[in-house]
Amino acid sequence: MKRVTIGLPIIPLLLAASLCFAVDPHDIVKKGDDVVNAPKDAHILTTMTLIDKNGNRNERTSEMYQIGTSKRLVRFLTPADQKGIGFLTLPDDVMYLYLPAFHKVRQIASHVKNQNFAGTDLTYEDLSEFELSKAHQVEVVEETKDEWVIRLYPNDGTDKDYTHLHIHYRKDNYYPQKVEYYDTSGSVWKTIERKNIEKIGGYWIARELEVKNLKKNHATISTMDKVEFDVGLGDDIFTKRYLMRTR
Amino acid sequence: MKNRRSLTAVSILLTALIVLGGRAFAEVSVNGSIETENGLLFKTSLLQNYQNTLGIKLEYGAEKYHLYANPELKVSSLSTVSDLSELQSIDRIAPYTLNLKEAYIDIYEFLIPVLDVRMGKQVVVWGTADRINPTSSFCPADLSDLFDWGEKLGVIAFLMNFYIGDIIITGVYTPVFTPTLLPQNFEQMAGTSLGAPTLELPGQVLGESQQVALRVNLPISTFDISTSYYYGRYSIPVAYEVWVQTDQSIESSKSYFPRLHVVGADFSGNLFDLGLWGELGVFIPEPYSTKSYYNHPSFGWIPKDDIASTPYVRYVLGTDYTFKNGIYVNFQFAHGFDHEIGKDLLNDYFITRLEKSFFDDKLKILPLTVIFTVSEWSDIPNNYGLAWVPEIQFFPSDNLELSTGCYILHGSGSNLFNNLKDNDALFFKAKVSF
What we know:
The complex is a heterodimer of chains A (about 250) and B (about 425).
Chain A: H1 2-20, H2 25-36, E1 41-51, E2 57-67, E3 71-78, E4 86-90, E5 94-99, E6 104-107, H3 124-128, H4 132-135, E7 136-143, E8 147-154, E9 164-170, E10 176-182, E11 188-200, E12 203-213, E13 218-229, H5 240-243
Chain B: H1 2-19, H2 22-26, E1 29-41, E2 47-61, E3 65-76, H3 90-93, E4 96-107, E5 115-122, E6 155-164, E7 167-174, H4 186-190, E8 196-200, H5 206-209, E9 211-220, E10 223-233, E11 238-244, E12 250-256, E13 259-271, E14 274-285, E15 288-296, E16 300-308, E17 312-322, E18 328-335, E19 348-358, E20 363-366, E21 370-374, E22 384-388, E23 391-397, E24 400-412, H6 416-419, E25 425-433
């Protein structure tokens, strides 16, 4: 009898929960990917501010080209000692790095992918990630009035610098506005927050990206200075040929 | 004279940039660096490499073309004054060199969409190994700083890159011959005095001085593969006539730059999480005669003739890995270095580098930059050399790099590091980029 009195109030709660999580989490992640990758192509100029634990700031500028969901090229424009360093992501996990000082393009080995890119808090992996839904198993963690929080576990056999992610998706447009990286001890060690999310040319984009490494107490704030969508970029940009070109 | 020529070349380039139009010139980007380098030999307290370098990088890029120039002014703080009259000369009080390292024009999609060309003085680097590139013969080595190996001198050349899908075909041609820049103590490095050496440069006619090279590069799975061919000359002089005294010292020698073919292949990529690369060059010298004269106490000078034409192979295999704690390890095995010519003169080198960064990459420690060489495997204790270059690099802010470390040289027998073992030194460098 006692069990019944306890169980009765639980039933509506479970029902409510199942109704709340009626949305397929995989569908949410997929829609999130689709929103982020919606433009046919993009050309974005960015100012990155690196902030260390003492509050010291270093600034660098970069440009990024992207087409579809598998090709991206990032190149530093400043500071002088980083100018021309470029990074190219191609399908099938192929990545190239160009270091102008050595006049050479080199394919990036797997062991480097979880390393930070040129002193920022973004890893090569972060820069090459396009479709989270394809690389993760997902489940709903929490639902609030404005967002879903989805937990993403990397697919078996993939080597990531996190055990799982918590991603906060906006309910109104499925935009992933916050990502939390968990380590093996179950603590959040890195966060990515997308701020100033607005619509440009019919596509949602965050004008500011803040990456925090909580272990190092270091942050990178990226501000989009110029955003162009659907400018008709060709595949020729996403080549070693173009990677070596100085702009 | 050399400085004047370099200055003229810089002036021509600047004029060309101006001629492109006032608006274009306004968009020329000016970057560069100022670097000071100071060294001190442990044993003798001799000051070494006290020099300051100003390097300027001028650049202008447009959709279809790109201009680049890199003049460099190097001023030594070590005077070379030897008599009173030279105190009137700034060249002697603070010797300087002005060098136009590179100055070229890129034209993209030249005539056809799949063709890019580069014309002018340029560094053409081939091969995928880390700084030791047996296939990279087109540009001569800059051996002025032995511990900065892998540096190349620019040559005036015409380079074409054809892009056919993922395949890149590179052809490069130069009508002129440029020899290697040797270190100031090259006789000590060679382990012998060369007496009174004379040198014959190739004639300045096309048939004598021109060089050509071809390379095909394509990606296969997680690897980039290349094959290459070079026809030119050794850029390091080879003695073809040597006069040897009774005590085996060289009285005099004559050297030149023999013709050479190099067939090469290289790969780079990753396997099982490891970075992996390899590079091989088959050196095929055109036959050239050598004459040695040995001074016999009784019979006087006895000649010995020989024909040198034996092909030989230089190769490099390397791997690198970054551990999860950020420690980076790089290991290479090389059979032969740039300064070693001929099958019998190639040594084996084991090269390691270990790096670990701290404080958000502001501090980098390189405790294990080591080169170990064996010149005779059957008697290693008497035929080995070791160079250990521990270094600390500090990056207090963007564009600023400070580093200090030392060269520890040790060995036995006749090899590069043993020949230089009295040159253990402390160094300090500071570099600001702008």
